[in-house]
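FYI - complex with iron/sulfur cluster, inputs then prediction.
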Amino acid sequence: MYLTAYEEEMYDGEYGEAVEKSMKILVALGDIYGAERMVEISSAQISGVSYKTIGDAGLEYLEELSKDPSARVKVQSSLNPAGMDLDNWRELGFSREFADRQSRIIDAYMRMDVMNTCTCTPYLIGNIPTRGSHVAWSESSAVIYANSILGARTNREGGPSALAAAICGRTPAYGYHLDENRIANILVKVEDSLEGYEYGVLGYYVGKIVGDGVPSFRFRGQPSGDEFKSLGAALASSGAVALYYVEGLNPAVECEFEDRISVDSASLEDSMDELSTTNDKPDLICVGCPHCSLGEIRLLARYLRHRRLSCDFWVCTSHALKVAADRMGYSDLIVGSGGVMVSDTCMVVSPIEDLGFDVVGVDSAKAANYIPSMCGLDVVFDDWKNLVRL
Ligand SMILES: C[C@@](O)(CCOP(=O)(O)O)CC(=O)O
Ligand code: SF4
């Protein structure tokens, strides 16, 4: 592939070992996917943060890499959720051993100047790529949000390739960076008006049909940003979708529809049932997959203000939005009803299986899809208001 003089110098090790190693990863990826050149990126979102998911091998790789002074990111780079709340891990019951290793991972990233914002919704707290800009993001729910709602361009990176891109400020130009791979190829007509968590069910259903295709949605009403967050997360987890369009919002510049499908509430019923693995009552309810927006926290707080929860209840969000919720008094209302504000982590990447829970209630199709395999626990999937009433 073609490299500029500067990129070649990075490749030849003139800027240090970590830069050289990172450039070699990017060139190898570019060669595999037929990239002809690199593009400059404006930001990175780096997954592979939880000690639960990357283990000792990941920890050692990051510590080793971060010792090299050339391992410093060139663009704004933010971290995906970690395996614990970085401040309140003791109160939530995480072990000291887990916490020590998790902190070493965060420290290694911080040495490389990656921001320890620890959220899968970086676009809610300031890592907001502009329309048309190239980025290297590796959280599938954030990738699809960036490509679809923000109009930026990113492939579904892995943690190591997003980090390599951040260290070089470049990513190979293939896949969703190129116009020809951003053509809508399946029309999805949504016949009924949906609400809240139903957008996750829709994403789960459509993702299984379209795989890595590019759907274009025709909705009856206009979903909210939070609903797009749920829709995209589910599309990216049951399928490998990285980009979708919405008629009237971000219509596809080009469409080559190979298929057209219609979806109504009845077609979603089976998916709705599939997402629960038990009829038992949850002993933990978790919302915030992807991490809650401040608007979602506000609605939870208003609903819970005069209620008492009958089981543990986690509201997962970023540290930044938890601070905002504290100042608004939302956190007090949630805590007052028996809930907990959990920042930096979530029900999938934290070791909830070691905290004595058996059945987790979630309103996120993505979380319902992942908890049985990633935590080995049973799941009840429903609207959060129904879960709270159970
Ligand atoms: C499941 C997921 O949201 C979080 C776990 O990933 P990681 O621990 O950040 O590698 C990753 C993804 O969907 O890209
Ligand atoms: S599993 Fe959900 S909450 Fe956890 S990091 Fe992924 S998108 Fe975010």
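Residues 17-33 form the longest helix (17 residues). The longest strand covers residues 255-263.
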